[in-house]
Amino acid sequence: MENRQRIYLVLIVLVGLIFWVRLFFLQGLDDRFKLAADTYSIRRLVNQPLRGNIFDRKGRVLATNDFAFDLMVIPLETKEMDTLALAALTEVPIEEVRKAWEKVNKNIEKKRRFKKQPQPLIRDLSQKSIAAFQEKMYRFPGLYVEKRSVRRYPEPHAAHALGYAREADASVLEKDAYYQPGDYVGVAGIERAYETYLRGIKGVRKVYVDVRNNEKGSYMDGLYDTLPVPGADLMSTLDIELQKYAELLMQGKRGAIVAIEPATGEILVLVSSPSYDPNWMVGRNLRQHYGALILDPAKPMLNRAVMDGYPPGSTFKVMNAMLGLQAGVINPATVVPCGGGFRLSAAHTVGCHGHPNADLRFSITTSCNAYYCHVFNELTKTNSSPRQAYKDWYLGAQRFGFGTKLGTDIPEAKSGLLPSPEYYDRMHGLGKWRGLTIISLGIGQGELKANALHIANLAAIIANRGYFISPHLGKALNGKPMPDTLFKHNYTRVDTAHFQIAWEGMYGAVHKPGGTAKIARLDSIAVYGKTGTAQNPHGKDHSVFMAFAPSKSPKIAIGVFVENGGFGATYAAPIASLIIEKYLTDTITRAGLEERLLKTRLE
Amino acid sequence: MSTQDRRGGLLGQVDWVLIGIYLTLALIGWMHVWSAVPNQERVSPFDVSSEAGKQFAWLLICLLVGAALLLSDTNLFYAFRWPFFGIGVALLLLVLVIGQEVGGNKSWIVLNSFIKIQPSEFAKYVTALALAGYLSTPLHLSPPAGRWPTLFWIFLAPITLILSITDLLLGQGLQMKRVVYWLKAFAIIGIPAVLVLAEKDTGSTLVYAAFVLAMFRFGLYLLLLYLGIILAFLFLTSLLIQPWILILGLVLVSIAIWLLILERSRKAILPMGFFLVLLSGFTLGGRWVFDHVLMPHQRTRIMVLFNPDLDPKGSGWNVNNSKMAIGSGSWFGKGFLNGTLTQLKFVPKQHTDFIFSAIGEQWGLLGTTVVILLFLTLMMRLILRAEMQRSPFAKAFGYIVACVLFFHFFMNIGTTIGLAPAVGVPLPFISYGGSSLLGFTLLLFTFIKLDAHNLEVLR
To answer: What are phi and psi of B101, to 5 degrees?
Structure first.
């Protein structure tokens, strides 16, 4: 019987040991619980920073933050819901209120815990509706108003340049871990390009929550908490007044305008028509407008100013003149007999309008097709094989920005199309093509594609006599200029001296007899222009025009496309001319011209 | 400690180690009851409107009671064991009439908003006295079986059957005297146990199993202890695998034992067959009881032992959060009053049944090891001191105290670390609750008092 004492001692030690081993594993070896306990009881709350404002080059506000008001509901605290009275107060259609309330109730049926959780009933109410509701709020227990910051664009213009910011959707959330549901993200234009500056830095607050999800004070007395840093204010290069005027002129027409300050590459105007109000992309408006915008056959959401584009037409001839001079296949005195066109073969002629035989200067002024077919044909003979010579031309044209995105900061920018030698190898077969096969490149037609940004940039290159600075929309961040390295000088490697002839030719086009763009003439200011007509296999040709002014250190270079506008001189040239006049003199002297353009509807 | 060390008066005679452990555990308890509220809501540990304050007040009362016990007459306990037992049973009956429900158990007598008492804690003490008194007369000195009312036999019929069969198997023929001796002991335990069960207090009822554990020291068939352990194992296993596979396993193990250990003894065939049938029947019956008799919440309480994720928001919730709190304490804990789960009410009943998780979270493995070592020391010292008692009453009482503590220790800590089903018993001296602290104080100090007079007892 005595030895039964041992049973008790063994039992006690055994249980103690089992417990201790279990605790050793639970507490010592297994980290899972530590992590789980933290996620259980510590909530990481995010304080949203205010998104940075966007200004135009003169400091006028283009994008800022507004507050939206959501009507929130805690279903548990609600009594009978008088949807009719609520609809009347908030001026929201009764069907919408009923639907929203039904949705809340459905959620509760699915998950009981929703009963205690605040959830939005009606989002984005106007301040007026909110004021009316708040007066009668006592009649709606369980409802309250929550304030939320949303994007607002005070000027309903420059939609394509500004882009827009909206709540991050599933695809954004998946790609970038920075974003959480409800965060704003720039999805186009400046809002997208400068997203990382504009969005600011989120503040984080760690708090303890108890088992009922009530806040119970800050974690570690706020040691790890951070305040949100508001997004940087961005000054854009846009001139909103000029932009408005340009948009006005493009009313009823499809097309694009880009105006650049040649010395800096700053984009003054970026119009894509038809356009839309950037506010439509925000909050409640989005649901109203987005569908219609997407379905509109005129594609208002498309940024025509930077899309792949159309053939540049005769504006391209100026570049070919420069490349021809640089390669030495022509000189300013070279005269090519026009004779109504360039004879490709007995059967084919590239036609030209009747004009006297031209030297280089006059060929630009009068836009002689035969001259540039000749130049291009000569250019393709400068190397061992046409292909090799074409490659030299191709690289030269690339330096003028064609077939590239120009290093711009516009996220939607497309490179257009400058066919590479390989492109023609695929098209015609290796060794089966030569200069005459692709002669239309000489006059800016054929496979070429360029957009208003390319054309405006070409004008800027000529204005700068040989280089361009990547055209861009961002000017300064928080008052500090953008770093210079962001937008570099791009040299064409065409001698500066050669550009004198381009200046003279383009001056002639506007101011001299035989010039194709006399409609763009201004009394007080020298305008340098070049018309173009982009062949359009689908309909009426597109009207193209490029110009810069004034003669002493040009302040503006502009490229205009008007879809189905016909000759460059018809619409593109007068529009460009009015914009130049407006920008340089701030007055419009040709009211009649202006009125004619405003009335024109090409849609 | 040798007997020579024990000199002087009462102060020299009492076991200061036991008192020291008692005070340490009680202070740890008070401290952690104080800690187990949100930091903002915590008031002074002496503020009697708070639970910590009440626990402190109860601790003072218990110290007074302890001192009174030490100063009382040693013979009091043995002499008044039956009157005490009667009072205890009467209180349990009273609870059934005027008791109020607190937390699902109708086991409380509410005096006012501050004082609620739980007679079942007091009943444990008086049962211990009565049983120790009964066991102090050994079997060979006990009077002949005598006649007992028929009701008694019917009431205890299952136990009679088990005892008789065991006796038959172990002894040379059935001796009714032996059976009746143990039957009476079971009756002493059974009366309060049934009354507590009637209060729907499952945890406190199960505590009476601890008394049976103590009886093995005084000659109760050890076979029953082993059988009990095997049955518990079988029961839990039968929940995990198909009963018929389990029975097949039992048959194979029996044949192996008969072949290898019992060397094909013919005499062993009958008892082995008997046990095989018994165990198989139990396996099937246990499963049947589990499926058809137990309430759903009791079933899940058992099943979460195997799969804590079974019911994470219901039965598994307490245990899961308790394990998480303890586990997150890591090696050295998060620091006193810095436990995130403890202070944020993630563990329900944390100041009572789950107080161990508050210690585990705030002090880590270091703290839990200390508490376990304190309990091991306490229980082993009780067993060692009990064995030395010259008075059979003191010896039996010592064993009973050790076993009651052991049972609470096992069930309570076992629950918090997911090794025992959550039946809801307090951790002695540590859990919040005046009645429970008082009950354990009575048990421990009565033994200390008896132990202090060990040398005066003449053999």
So the answer is: -85, 125
